[in-house]
Amino acid sequence: MSHDLLRFATAGSVDDGKSTLVGRLLHDTKSILADQLAAVERASADRGLAATDLALLTDGLRAEREQGITIDVAYRYFSTPTRSYVLADTPGHVQYTRNMVTGASTAELALILVDARHGIVEQTRRHLAVTGLLGVRHVALAVNKMDLINFDEPTFDQIRDDFSRLAKEFGVDDVAAIPVSALDGDNVVDRSQRTPWYAGPTLLEHLESVPVGESATQQPFRFAVQYVIRPRSAQFPDYRGYAGRVSSGSVRVGDEVIIAPGGRPSTVIGIDRGIADGGLEELTQAHAPQSVTLRLADDLDISRGDLIAAADAAPAVVREVTGTTVVVAERPLRPRDRVLVRIGSRHVRGMITELLDRIDVTTLQRGPSPESLGLNDLGRVRVRLAEPSPVDTYAALPRTGAFLLISESDGTTLAAGMTEGPLVSIDAEPEAWAI
Fold first, then answer.
1. Domain ranges of the chain
2. Which UniProt keywords apply (predicted)?
3. Average model confidence (pLDDT) for the chain?
4. Do the beta carbons of residue 113 and residue 140 sit within 8 Å?
5. Nearest to 318 by CA among 335, 336, 343, 293
6. What is the pLDDT of residue 41?
7. How far apart, in whole angstroms, are the C-alpha atoms of residue 415 and residue 132?
8. What is the CATH number of domain 316-428?
9. Which of 126, 194, 249, 338 is paired with 354 by a 20 to 30 Å CA distance?
10. DSSP characters for 79-140?
11. Are 191 and 366 in contact (CB under 8 A)?
């Protein structure tokens, strides 16, 4: 089997057992160090608990988040013989909507918990709305605390059907519902004997089998230049390379590319990857998400922030972007605010020209144009850029379709956005305008 990577985010309401489920998943896949487990066992004993409380593996981080210290999304890493995992444990409270957006923005799967006793609640709608908004392709529904309803099949079936109908409202079609007891481990890693009526996979089996990674390598090639390498040494007297990360697609030696925003064409004549001794390993091809250095046939003026892209699938080069944003700072967004806009590795000055609407995150209904967007608000904004910039729509290419709005005065990140189409290239604009 291939050993690939799955990024997934967890979301759930208060007291639905998310911490216990995450702890159970880590424990039963043997992804906890012995000293960590011993510390949790001691803490459980100190609290007078008869069994080890696996929720304590994550509750420490949760306490830090609730105190507003440093951690917004807790990332956990584990692996099995089949694949590796990056788990983004996101807070589920309504006031932490921005944090779920952060954690789910790079996920290929959302793991949403529902308490079997309560079924679908408002927070479930919110989590599904954000999942649909971000275009997360796969959803796993963990109907937790099945032990508290005696593993009642009709209750599970009702929750599964209600959730699937709601998911379709938000544009989510791929849903796998799994009855679990995180406390006892039923259907998390090991199959439960208490659900003979359930023939589907355990949670881990589903995580092992869900398709991942196929879209990034099949998408058009995009490579954001981080810096230009010119060592000027005796070993590399004429070396000029462009270092960065392949954000989507793949590239081979001999491929025709263009450099945006200028649209200058060239050909890839070399692909290098650094190795431990400080030297370079020459590759014939590279693909997302590899970090490499590209060498081109032509001596072009290329700098940080430029985008090297497939010649036959070039990005739009625009002077204006429109997209849905989530505000992540105390400072609200208002029309005519001057900001720095980061798209990939490119930073340009910009101005918010219009707030188009505010989105009700529980329904995805769009309200009228507001005077401002505050902390955790979601809404569509239009931003004018001071320089032509290459961009894709978020739905097509998330890595080059996402943007950040940053305060010019102190560098604070104000909002994260997802570019929408149609994108109007500057060659189609009647005139350019300044910021």
1. 4-212, 217-310, 316-428
2. ATP-binding, GTP-binding, Nucleotide-binding, Nucleotidyltransferase, Transferase
3. 84
4. no
5. 343
6. 62
7. 19
8. 2.40.30.10
9. 126
10. E-SSEEEEEEE---SGGGHHHHHHHHTT-SEEEEEEETTT-S-HHHHHHHHHHHHHT--EEE
11. no
Q: 119-129 burial, b for 16+ CB within 10 Å, e for fewer?
A: ebeebbbbbbb
CB 345 within 8 A of CB 297: no
**Residue pLDDT, tens place only, 79-132:** 888 888 888 887 666 556 666 777 777 788 999 999 999 999 888 888 888 888
Q: How far apart are CA 10 and CA 43, in angstroms?
A: 24
List % helix, strand, coil for the chain (3-state, nearest 5).
25, 35, 40
Match 């001057």 to its residue by tokens.
Answer: 338
Task: Find residue 266's DSSP bridge partners.
Answer: 257
pLDDT level of residue 212 (50, 70, 90 thresholds): confident
Longest distance between any two alpha carbons in the chain, whole Å: 74
Among 101-105, 380-384, 404-408, which is the least confidently predicted range? 101-105
Query: Among 71, 87, 82, which Cα is nearest to 26's?
Result: 87
Would 4-212 and 217-310 be classified into the same CATH topology?
no
Q: Output the DSSP codes for 136-188.
A: --EEEEEEE-GGGGTT-HHHHHHHHHHHHHHHHHTT--EEEEEE-BTTTTBTT
242: which 2 tokens? 């462009």
Domain 217-310 has CATH 2.40.30.10: yes
Rounded CA separation 256/296 (Å): 10
Residue type, 353: T
pLDDT for 31-71, tens place per residue?
665 556 566 666 666 666 656 555 555 655 444 444 433 33
* Cβ neighbours around 401 below 10 Å, total: 26
ω into residue 261 within 30 of 0, thus cis? yes
Exposure of 324 by Cβ count < 10 A (0-12 exposed, 13-18 middle, 19+ buried)? buried
Quickly tell me which residue has 């408002």 as its tokens: 122
Amino acid at residue number 379:
G
Q: Cα 338 to the chain's mean position, in Å?
A: 27
Q: What is the pLDDT of residues 250-298, one digit of tens each?
A: 999 999 999 999 889 999 999 998 766 667 789 999 998 889 999 999 9
Tell the CATH superfamily of the 4-212 domain.
P-loop containing nucleotide triphosphate hydrolases (3.40.50.300)
